[in-house]
Amino acid sequence: MYDSILLPVDGSEHTAKIVQHAAELAQWTEAKIQVVFVADTTRDSLTVVDGDVVDALEREGKPIVSDVASELDSLGVEHGTDIVQGSPAPTIVDYAERYDYDLIVLPTHGRTGISRYLLGSVTEKVVRLSDVPVLTARMQSDEQLTFPYENILVATDGSPASNAAAKHGLALAAALDATVHVLSVVDDTSLGPDVRSVLSTEELERPAVEAVEDVDAEADAYELPDVRTNVEHGSPAAVIKEYIETSDIHAVVMGSSGRRGVDRILLGSVAEKTVRSAPVPVITVHEGS
After folding, report:
1. Which range has the worst mean pLDDT, 71-85, 95-109, 177-191?
2. Residues with Cβ < 8 Å from 184, sequence gap 6 or more?
3. What is the pLDDT of residue 181?
4. Which end of the chain has fewer CB atoms at under 10 Å, N or C?
């Protein structure tokens, strides 16, 4: 399913964990991993070493990619390395699309905890911008990096991006012989009491029920061992997080935009809240994927 995986690295203390998970994915599909370090041109990085002008960030990146390459060597994973210059997020996105990668793997923690890979940072910008599916993992103490995934949560709202994500999640589950949990959340937290009193429960739930039914019907073509459908009420990101914890979910697959188009892919969207809060890997899929 994944023939080529892009693994951007920055020397974070959590690199080993995300490298191991990317390696497990690569071993499963016999994929090649491309390790890339982006020398951030938005920072002043030129310095003088032994009388020569050098890019300090490029110089810093060499041992980082070398260490990751050594780890992949020890795991028997085919790989390549590269150091490129640019603004990190758009450079990663452009690199993945230019060389036709199947998946980008990124942590949501970076160099020093509160750093480049947190709120409003590289990872979330990549999630927003990338047409290539992005697997993110928080790399916190409660993070569960289990592979192969036995329970995959497909979160849907019936939008084009959700439909693309559902196909990706179903294909992944079929390849792993995993159970699929299809979840749609009725976000009635944003509705005032007057609106809730006028609309019946059936009317409120209808779009969510239809979204779940569409994925369930799509699943027939994948010969999956088990598909479980659920419609819940509440704040979507919070409900998704709770469902992960109560249903032993190993990975979440969801769209990186939603029913409201551009508004939903901006900071604070359900996808980005889930990327920040989910204790398991989250694979975000763009409508065009």
Report:
1. 177-191
2. 155, 156, 157, 158, 207, 208, 209, 211, 212, 230, 231, 232
3. 98
4. N
How buried is residue 146: exposed, middle or buried, by Cβ count under 10 Å (0-12/13-18/19+)? middle
Domains and CATH numbers, the chain: 4-137 (3.40.50.620), 151-285 (3.40.50.620)
CB 284 within 8 Å of CB 165: yes
Q: What is the mean pLDDT of residues 182-207?
A: 73
Nearest to 128 by CA among 154, 111, 110, 104: 104
Q: Is the pLDDT of residue 142 over 80?
A: no
The answer to whether 180 and 229 have CB atoms below 8 angstroms apart is: no
Looking at residues 143-148, what average pLDDT do you find?
A: 84
Residues 6+ apart with CB under 8 A from 53: 46, 47
Percent of the chain with pLDDT strictly greater than 70: 80
In what helix (H) or strand (E) does residue 128 lie, and over which residues does it extend? helix 122-129
34/32 Cα distance (integer angstroms) = 7
Please give the distance of CA 191 from its chain centroid, rounded to a whole number: 29
Say whether the peptide bond before residue 88 is cis (omega within 30 degrees of 0): no
Q: Please work out, in degrees rounded to the nearest 5, the angle formed at the alpha carbon of residue 124 by the alpha carbons of 141 and 107.
A: 35
What's the N-to-C CA distance of the chain in angstroms?
A: 13
Structure confidence by residue, pLDDT tens digits, 224-263: 999 999 999 999 999 999 999 999 999 999 998 644 344 3
For 14, 181, 190, 232, the CA distances from 63, given in Å and listed in that order, are 16, 41, 49, 48
The rounded distance, in Å, linking the Cα atoms of 254 and 244 is 13
Q: How many C-beta neighbours within 10 Å does residue 153 have?
A: 27
